[in-house]
Specification:
The protein folds into two domains: 378 residues, Outer membrane efflux proteins (OEP) (Up-down Bundle); 76 residues, Outer membrane efflux proteins (OEP) (Single Sheet). The strands form two sheets. The protein has a four-stranded antiparallel beta sheet, with no helix packed on it. It has a two-stranded parallel sheet with strand order 1-4. The C terminus is likely disordered. It contains 13 helices and six strands. The two termini are 43 Å apart.
Length: 483
């Protein structure tokens, strides 16, 4: 049995030292390169504007893109769920904070009893002069208790709750970044499909004009029936490509509506007029892979969750040690109602120094510690993997941005050459120098090159969106990472 002096010494020593058992958290060191592989190529690329990470979507110079991204950040339901999780984490932090403080309660009760004279006790009392078979009782108490966090278990719980709260805040930033990137990506896809549809419809018009010309020549006996069928078949093939593209366009528009938290079709009228594919802006500062650790919110989430699991190891280890608590009661109790409830004679008070020690439960504590250590090891691996995948995202996005822009530039030159070749072949066909096959081949080559150019321009802009997302979107999360 511990003596009173020993208990006082233990409590005083723990409070003065402010010790907390378990490992103190150290942010893991991750080995990263000094730069990205395609960083130079992206830095040197010509672009119409430079844009910082904050509000990067405005750098595309497209007011409608900015409008839809802003709308998504206001109305997206995934973001609403992430924001609600902050409230839950804040509540958990409040519970952990309150555990470190004294708690108190006020209680009161009033009772009225009746004693039967048929019972042995009632018969005995009934023989007492002036026995009152009815009895009243009144009581009011103020009770306070405080668990003394001598070995830091509650403080470790608080550390874990704080880290989870910070992770939830970074999670909202990660969701905002993902929503903004998805909105921009879908919008660019819509503009790309509209451009491809316009290319296909222009080719339909060209093929229709060619068919009209051949039918006119056929009516004059200057063209064979085979040529009419060849031109008609080529026209049908081009027409058949339009419904497929239109289906993809409708799917993309519906996806954007759902992302905006609205019914499919809500914003279709706003997007009905085809606009140019937004040009990818220049990224002002790409930074290094090490910058991702401070800038990407999903990495901050992984790091804060790692910190939380580390703190829970200390909370589990603290169960090895005794827990001390102080509790006290101040109140008043009486069995009469003549106003003497709060008199000096009715007062009552008590003070208790409590001890709880899981002295014969160490096997279960060992298992809880092993569980906490296993969770920390899992989160450490998840954090390291998240860092690797983050650098992979950036490398892939920067490579795609540089290569797609190069592809679009080459295809633009090809489209110009094929357009002139088509004009020349048609003129030669009218003069009887070449056959209709050459004209149809020239049309097909031009259509393919124009469609490929539109796709390359679309993918280039989407790669820029992916690069901004992979790089972290903005640097507003650094304060979280430094906690």
């Amino acid at each position: 049995m511990l003596s009173k002096r020993t208990l006082v010494v233990l409590i005083s020593t723990g409070l003065m030292a402010g010790c907390a058992v378990g490992p103190d958290y150290q942010r893991p060191v991750v080995s990263l390169s000094d730069g990205f592989l395609d960083q130079t190529a992206v830095d040197d690329r010509p672009a119409h504007a430079q844009v910082e990470f904050a509000n990067w979507w405005s750098g595309f110079g497209d007011p409608q893109l900015t409008h839809f991204v802003t709308l998504a950040l206001e109305q997206n339901l995934d973001l609403a769920q992430a924001t609600a999780r902050i409230t839950q984490a804040r509540a958990g932090l409040g519970v952990a904070n309150s555990a470190l403080l004294p708690s108190g309660s006020i209680s009161g009760q009033m009772g009225r009893g009746y004693q039967s004279v048929e019972t042995p006790l009632g018969q005995m009392l009934n023989a007492t002069p002036d026995f009152d078979r009815y009895g009243n009782s009144y009581e009011a108490n103020l009770v306070a208790s405080w668990e003394l966090d001598v070995f830091g278990g509650l403080r470790r719980d608080h550390e874990a709750a704080l880290a989870e709260y910070q992770a939830s805040k970074a999670g909202v930033s990660a969701t905002r970044l993902a929503v903004a990137a998805q909105a921009a990506d879908i919008y660019i896809t819509i503009r790309g499909l509209q451009t491809r549809i316009a290319v296909a419809r222009q080719q339909v018009q060209t093929q229709e004009e060619l068919l009209d010309t051949i039918e006119l020549l056929y009516g004059q006996g200057l063209a064979a029936e085979l040529q009419v069928h060849q031109a008609s078949g080529a026209l049908a093939q081009v027409r058949a490509s339009v419904p497929v593209l239109e289906t993809g366009l409708e799917v993309a528009m519906n996806a954007l509506d759902v992302l905006l938290g609205s019914q499919p079709g809500t914003h279709r009228a706003e997007l009905a007029k085809a606009e140019a594919i937004p040009a990818a802006p220049q990224i002002a500062v790409i930074g290094t892979p090490g910058d991702l650790l401070r800038r990407r919110p999903d990495l901050i989430v992984a790091e804060r969750r790692l910190a939380a699991t580390n703190a829970r190891i200390g909370a589990a280890i603290a169960e090895y040690y005794p827990k001390f608590s102080l509790s006290g009661l101040i109140g008043s109790a009486t069995s009469v109602s003549d106003g003497s409830l709060f008199s000096s004679g009715a007062s009552q008070m008590s003070g208790v120094l409590g001890l709880r020690w899981r002295l014969f439960d160490f096997a279960r504590i060992d298992a809880q510690i092993d569980l906490a250590k296993g969770q920390e090891a899992e989160q450490l691996a998840a954090y390291r993997l998240a860092v690797l995948r983050a650098t992979e995202d950036v490398e892939n996005a920067l490579s795609a941005l540089a290569k797609r822009e190069e592809q679009a530039h080459l295809l633009e030159m090809g489209v110009n050459s094929l357009s002139r070749a088509r004009q020349a072949s048609f003129a030669s066909y009218q003069q009887g120098v070449v056959s209709l096959i050459e004209v149809l081949q020239a049309d097909e080559n031009l259509l393919r090159a124009s469609d490929a150019k539109a796709q390359a321009q679309t993918e280039s802009a989407r790669a820029a969106v992916a690069a901004f997302k992979a790089l972290g979107g903005s640097s507003t999360h650094q304060s979280l990472a430094s906690n």
